[in-house]
Structure formats: structure tokens, C-alpha cells
From TrEMBL:
Its EC number is 2.7.7.18. One of its GO terms (biological process) is NAD+ biosynthetic process. Pathway: Cofactor biosynthesis; NAD(+) biosynthesis; deamido-NAD(+) from nicotinate D-ribonucleotide: step 1/1. InterPro entries: Cyt_trans-like (IPR004821), NadD/NMNAT (IPR005248), Rossmann-like_a/b/a_fold (IPR014729). One of its GO terms (molecular function) is ATP binding. This is Probable nicotinate-nucleotide adenylyltransferase. It comes from Desulfobacca acetoxidans. It is an enzyme of class 2 (transferase). Residues 9-191 form the Cytidyltransferase-like domain. It catalyses: nicotinate beta-D-ribonucleotide + ATP + H(+) = deamido-NAD(+) + diphosphate. It comes from the Bacteria. Catalyzes the reversible adenylation of nicotinate mononucleotide (NaMN) to nicotinic acid adenine dinucleotide (NaAD).
Length: 219
């Protein structure tokens, strides 16, 4: 896919993708007026044992089925093409090299994830490569983020005048984005499937049928 000059990036395991992911992406793309937002399923998530993760081909296809022919939301198989563990730093460096320094990249993640970002590979360098768009998560306090960024990432983070986030010395921003909080999780969906219970209306119908047809999450 050819990237526009402003591009949203939504990485994750997507095991499976559900309406929580899709609605957040829709609202971020609309709020930031992004010409495109890519879902990027992880090939091999670094923080999970391989046996715990459904094969990439299944997760990629479910993501494609969920997104369909959306005008803005797209699906990239970038991390599945790369051997070994799927490190976000490698993905951002590759995209930055491919699209150049003027492209505005917006990496989307939850407040829970950014507060654990010290466990990510080369985590401080991430904030020099892309803007970060932080989504609220139930049970997490966004007022902690400023102190965390200054302590764990760079002491010279500055709060934006708008109160919408923080500015890294590189010029990249960490932005808060309010979205509709849907209390749906992939873990919950997998548990329901194993228990033989309905997952209808938690994810797109095409994805539900795909899971049942391929007998995913039964073990």
C-alpha cells in the first residue's frame, strides 16, 4: 500500500479483532482527519508464547474480513512478512525509511500499553519516530502519564498548551484521544468460544463465521 503523508498505525495481536478495535480506529481516524489508518497484526508478538497465539494467517484474514472495503481503514501484513518477533521499533523504522521524514505517523495504543512500554524493545527511540495516540482504558488514570513519560522516556517532555498531551523534544507528540469505551476483549471472546457460548455482536458477523468455520479457539 502507498502511504499518504498522514498515516495512522494500529498494531496488535488481533486474536481476534472485535468492535472495540474497530470503533476506536474509526473515531481516531475521524478526529485526526487521517487519510488512512492501517491495522498491523503482529506476526509473532514478543510478549506472548508462540503456543498462545493463533497463526498469523488466521488473524490477518479475520482483520481483513472485519475491515472490509472501508475507505480509510486498511490492513497491512507487514509484520507477518518479517521473520522473528514483531518489534514495533522495527516496524516504525521501516515505515519511516520508506515514507521519509516528512510523513506524519500516528501510532495508536491504549493507556495500559503505554504505561508498560518500558518492556518494549528500544522503547525510548519509539518516541522519535512517530506521534503516539493514547486511548483511555477502564481502570487506568491518564493523569499518571505525564510523570511517567518524564521519568521513563525523556525528562524534557512538555505538556501541550491544549492539554491534549505532551511534546517530545524530537517534535513528536503523545496525544490523548477519547473514544467510545466498549468493554470487549479478545480474551473474553476466546473464552466464550471455548465454553460453547455465543460471540454474536461482539465482533463483525464475517469474523464470527470465520472463527466457527475454522474451529478457532476451541482448545
Amino acid at each position: 500500500m502507498k502511504a499518504p503523508t498522514r498515516l495512522g498505525l494500529f498494531g496488535g495481536t488481533f486474536n481476534p479483532i472485535h468492535y472495540g478495535h474497530l470503533r476506536s480506529a474509526e473515531e481516531v481516524a475521524e478526529a485526526l482527519r487521517l487519510p488512512q489508518l492501517w491495522f498491523i497484526p503482529a506476526g509473532l508478538p514478543p510478549h506472548k508464547a508462540p503456543a498462545e497465539v493463533t497463526p498469523f494467517a488466521f488473524r490477518l484474514e479475520m482483520t481483513r474480513l472485519a475491515v472490509g472495503r472501508h475507505a480509510v481503514l486498511k490492513v497491512s501484513d507487514l509484520e507477518g512478512q518479517r521473520p522473528g518477533k514483531s518489534y514495533t521499533i522495527q516496524t516504525l523504522r521501516l515505515l519511516r525509511e520508506q515514507f521519509g521524514p516528512k510523513a506524519e505517523l500516528y501510532y495508536i495504543l491504549g493507556l495500559d500499553a503505554i504505561l508498560e512500554i518500558e518492556t518494549w524493545k528500544d522503547y525510548r527511540d519509539l518516541f522519535t519516530l512517530a506521534h503516539f495516540v493514547v486511548l483511555d482504558r477502564p481502570g487506568y488514570d491518564r493523569s499518571r502519564l505525564g510523570e511517567f513519560l518524564g521519568r521513563a522516556i525523556h525528562k524534557d517532555f512538555q505538556e501541550l498548551p491544549s492539554g491534549r498531551g505532551f511534546l517530545h523534544p524530537s517534535g513528536q507528540q503523545v496525544l490523548f484521544q477519547e473514544t467510545t469505551l466498549l468493554d470487549i476483549s479478545a480474551t473474553q471472546i476466546r473464552r466464550l468460544v471455548r465454553a460453547g457460548r455465543s460471540i454474536r455482536y461482539l465482533l463483525p458477523e464475517a469474523v464470527r463465521r470465520y472463527i466457527l468455520h475454522n474451529k478457532l479457539y476451541l482448545e
